[in-house]
Structures are given as C-alpha cells and as structure tokens.
C-alpha cells in the first residue's frame, strides 16, 4: 500500500544513469509526498521531501537536500551552484544534459563572439536553460577554457533577459583573472556592485587572486578593505586564494607573511591552507618546514586530505628522501586514505631522485597491482629514474612502452630520454631524438638546444656547440642565461679564458644578468689553476653585483686555496657573509 501511495503521487520520473549512480528525479504535488509510519498510534503524517531521489552504487536509496537542489525558484543552480575551490555544490560535478552537450561543443569550436551570442539568443529563457549554461561554464572551467566561459557569462549578464546573479559575475572574474586581465576583472566587480548584487567571499577571493597574478599587491590589499566594508571578514577561502596567487606569481615570502597574518587575525587555517604552505616549502626544498607544518596541522585537529599527504611526499621526494616519503605514504594509508596516481608518482619521484630506479619500478608495479592506472607523468618519472642511473636502455624501453599503449610522448618525455642518452655521451642517439621530436611536430625549445650544446661541449666538439649557439641567436629560439652559463663553464674547463671572459662581458648587451651559476662557473675556471688572487677579485665583483654565493661557490673558492692561511681567510669571509645574510632575513 505504501508503494501504491507513492506511485499515485508521482507525476513523472526521469531516470538518469551515470557511471556510479542511477538518479530518479521526481516532481510531486506541493513539492513532497506523504508517507505514513506503521508504528504511529496518533495517525500523524510525516513528509518525505523528495526533490531528488536516487539509488547509489551500493543499491541503496538516497535523497539530496531539497534546499540545495530545488527548482522552485530561479533554477537549481542560481546563486549557489558553483563555489570557488570546489567546482559544484558539495563537490558534485556537473552532469550535462543533451542540450548542454550541444552548447559545450559549439562554444568550444566557435571563436566569434557575435556567432556565439546569436546562437545563445535562440535558447528559451527557462530554469533548465540557466542550469545548462552554468553546467557548461563549470565544465569549461574544469578544462581551463577561459574564453568560452567569458562569452557565456557576458551573454547572461549583459545580453540576455536572465536576472543577474553573483555566480555569473564570479565565473567571469575568475576567467579574466586566469588570463591576467585584471582591469576587466575589476570592471566586472564594479558591474556587480552597480547591479546591486551582494559580493560573496568567492568574489573577493577571485579578485585578489587576479591582482596577485599581475603582481598588484596594493590592489589585493585594497580588496581586503572592500570586503570588510561589506561585512565579510576575511575567511580561510580568501586567504587561501591570496596565498595561492602569491605562490603562482613567484612571491613565496609574501605568501608566508599572509599565512602568519591569517593566524594573527584569529582565522582558522583550513586543510587547503596547510596544503598550500606544505607545497610552498616543498618546492623550496625545505622538507623539514613542510613536516613542521604538517605536525602543526594535526595538533590543531585539522585533518589532512589526500592532497596534503601528496604535497608532503613530494616535499621529501624533491630532496631524494625516499624513506621519509615512504613513511608518510604509509601514514596516509593508516588514515584510511586511498593513494591516487599523484601520490604514487610522488613516491616514485623520491626513489628516482635518490638514485634507486628499481625502487621506483617497484612502486610503479604496486600502483598497477592496486588498480591505479599510471598516467603520462608516471612513465616520464620511470624514464627519468633509469636515465639518472645511467640505464639508458631501460629508459628507452619505458619510452617505447608508453607509445605502444597509445600515450603520446610530450616534449618533456623526449627531453628526459635525451638526458638519459646525454649522460651516456651518445651523440648519435641524442641527435636522433631531436629529429624525432621535429617529425612529431614538437619544435625543440631552448632547454633541448642547451642540452645538445652541453653534450657537444663535454665531448670537446666546440664547432657543433657554436653552431647550435649561432642557430639560437639567429633563429626563433631564445638563448637564456643558462645557455651562456654552459658556454662559460665549458670554455673555463677547457682553459679558454679569453673566450670565457668575452662571453661574460657580453651578457649586459644581451639584457642578461649573471646569476650565481654564472659567477661560480667563472670562479671555477681560475680555481682549477689555483689562481687564488684572481678568484678573490671575482668573488668581490660577485658580491658588489648583489649576487649571493651558495654552497657551490664556497666549495669552488676553497678549492682555489693552496695554503692554510688562504683556507682560513676564505672560511672567515664565508662565515661573516652567512651571519650577515641571517641578520638580513626577516624573523
């Protein structure tokens, strides 16, 4: 009888099948149907809200919260469908209708704004159309296709009869910010205010991120002031966007300062906040700081997720600390988190950088055994692991296997194989790989040509090395400071001091500034000849030029010493400088 009662009230059922779920969407009189409790003695009737009923992958009936998915007003996605940082309500990603698929395919191919807008003008102004457009915009965002997103949002906001909505403004600000068009993002924010829409924390997070991408920190700070004016205190979401933007803009020190401000403002760092900072220190080869943040995170009862663990594994991987990386990997599994391909890749990278290619191979096999399919990056790591260990034949075998499986090798794939054969000093094979790249439609870049120059130089084939340099200077390939560092190092090792000095002196005319590698390579040439006085002169020039020496510079300078007095003098200078740098660093 209960099932019969349900069927009487159901007006229509729309069944949708996806990979994991069967959705049953119902429209019912007054938005609900009634279900009587068998044990009810009072005859009370309870309502079962059923805006969306579905059967999950385990065969159990589930219900969505009708308040989040209701179609009663303005469409199910108006004002709350897309959230910055998550993608969709509660992390549910868009399921495109047939019409949405057609819109998606059209806007991906059509580049003329007028044609796109003319096509959109033909759509009916309904809740379903609204949802389809937002679903398409979110799908485009997942694929980082910013131009079509801008066209759709511009049409909705400025050309259609749809009511303006903060979500569309946010998507448009995001699209402009991703393309570093901060002025357009700023104009969109002003339009939002003039349309009397209330900005959300997502609005300010995206605006601040856009400013950071363009290096406009003063404007980013001004956005914080605006946010408070509208009664929105800075939250972890906004701080995370600020930190992420600073990291991508290459300003990690400022990102650390913003993290400290977050804590000083009494704002609780989220899992994403700690993950960002762990990534920051990992990329700076500061695994000890990454681990310190991880421990702080757990002490604050902030639960790490799969991304946090992967970031920490990566931090240890960059320094080749495979035992620590594996320890974190095991800890993640103890926390009942299933490793994904990114985590396995990070652990493989740790073994690769530590010089254990067979350890990386074991992780690769484990990943496949556990049902996690390796991606292109997995194969690239294995090519690199074998190449670093001098096992160029094994590297070639992995490269061939990748092609056999239909995974197209990228520029990086070819580069790693090239480096493997370069270590083996196999010129013919390296030249063959460069030719293969050209045949595959991959034009060799500066890094590839620098690698070939370095190989020719190490083998004493200076004519070929100079031919590559001439091609770079005359052709479409841009010679960078690394190009000239290779030449300075090669000529210095060969004792061609005049050529080395000539290249060094020519750098200002090429708008290139010597870096620590440049100065250290130049120092090394004289250090090998035990020309201690000349080394000190160059070292003083380096300091005067504002270039800070590193550990490699100190070793080269010490190797120029031929007496205890000289060693003591150099040690004193280095210690004095180290203390001076520590004093200059912010506390």
From TrEMBL:
Q: Does the keyword Repressor apply?
A: no
- Keyword Acetylation applies: no
Protein name as it appears in the record: PROP1-like PPR domain-containing protein
Which residue ranges does the record assign to the PROP1-like PPR domain? Answer: 360-485
**InterPro entries on file:** PPR_rpt, PROP1-like_PPR_dom, TPR-like_helical_dom_sf
**SUPFAM superfamilies from the xrefs?**
HCP-like
Q: Which PROSITE patterns match?
A: PPR
Identify its protein family: Belongs to the PPR family. P subfamily.
Pfam families found in the cross-reference section: PPR_2, PPR_3, PPR_long
Q: Which Gene3D superfamilies match?
A: Tetratricopeptide repeat domain
């Amino acid at each position: 009888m209960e099932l019969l009662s349900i069927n009487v009230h159901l007006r229509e059922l729309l069944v949708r099948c996806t990979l994991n779920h069967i959705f049953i969407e119902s429209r019912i009189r007054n938005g609900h149907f009634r279900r009587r409790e068998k044990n009810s003695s009072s005859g009370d009737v309870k309502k079962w809200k059923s805006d969306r009923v579905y059967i999950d992958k385990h065969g159990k009936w589930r219900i969505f919260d009708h308040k989040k998915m209701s179609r009663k007003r303005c469409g199910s996605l108006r004002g709350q469908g897309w959230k910055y940082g998550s993608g969709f309500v509660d992390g549910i990603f868009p399921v495109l209708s047939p019409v949405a698929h057609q819109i998606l395919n059209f806007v991906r191919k059509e580049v003329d704004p007028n044609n796109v807008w003319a096509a959109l003008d033909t759509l009916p102004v309904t809740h379903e159309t609204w949802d389809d457009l937002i679903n398409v915009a979110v799908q485009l965002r997942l694929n980082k296709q910013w131009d079509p997103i801008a066209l759709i949002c511009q049409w909705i906001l400025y050309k259609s009869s749809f009511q303006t909505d903060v979500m569309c403004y946010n998507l448009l600000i995001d699209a402009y910010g991703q393309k570093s068009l901060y002025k357009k993002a700023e104009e969109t924010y002003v339009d939002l205010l003039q349309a009397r829409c209330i900005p959300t924390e997502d609005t300010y997070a995206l605006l601040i991120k856009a400013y950071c991408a363009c290096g406009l920190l003063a404007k980013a700070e001004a956005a914080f002031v605006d946010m408070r004016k509208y009664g929105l205190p800075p939250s972890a979401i906004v701080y995370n966007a600020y930190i992420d933007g600073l990291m991508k803009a290459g300003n990690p020190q400022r990102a650390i300062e913003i993290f400290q401000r977050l804590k000083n403002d009494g704002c609780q760092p989220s899992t994403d906040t700690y993950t960002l900072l762990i990534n920051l220190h990992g990329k700076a080869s500061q695994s000890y700081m990454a681990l310190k943040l991880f421990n702080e995170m757990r002490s604050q009862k902030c639960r790490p997720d799969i991304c946090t663990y992967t970031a920490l594994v990566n931090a240890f991987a960059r320094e080749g600390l495979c035992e620590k990386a594996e320890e974190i990997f095991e800890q993640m599994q103890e926390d009942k988190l299933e490793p994904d391909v990114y985590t396995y890749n990070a652990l493989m990278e740790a073994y690769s950088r530590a010089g254990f290619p067979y350890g990386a191979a074991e992780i690769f096999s484990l990943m496949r055994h556990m049902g996690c399919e390796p991606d292109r990056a997995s194969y690239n790591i294995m090519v690199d692991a074998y190449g670093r260990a001098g096992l160029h034949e094994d590297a070639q075998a992995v490269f061939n296997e990748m092609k056999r499986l239909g995974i197209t090798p990228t520029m990086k794939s070819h580069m790693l194989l090239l480096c493997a054969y370069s270590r083996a000093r196999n010129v013919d094979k390296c030249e063959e790989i460069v030719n293969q790249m050209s045949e595959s439609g991959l034009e060799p870049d500066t890094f590839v040509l620098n690698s070939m120059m370095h190989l020719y130089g190490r083998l004493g084939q200076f004519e070929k090395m100079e031919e590559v340099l001439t091609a770079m200077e005359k052709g479409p390939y841009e010679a960078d400071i690394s190009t000239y560092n290779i030449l300075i190092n090669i000529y210095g090792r060969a004792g061609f001091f005049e050529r080395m000095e000539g290249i060094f002196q020519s750098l200002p005319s090429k708008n290139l500034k010597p870096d620590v590698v440049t100065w250290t390579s130049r120092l090394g040439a004289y250090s090998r000849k035990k020309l201690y006085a000349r080394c000190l002169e160059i070292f003083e020039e380096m300091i005067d030029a504002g270039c800070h020496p590193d550990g490699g510079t100190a070793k080269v300078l010490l190797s120029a010493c031929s007496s205890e007095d000289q060693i003591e003098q150099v040690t004193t200078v280095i210690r004095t400088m180290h203390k001076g740098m520590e004093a200059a660093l912010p506390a």
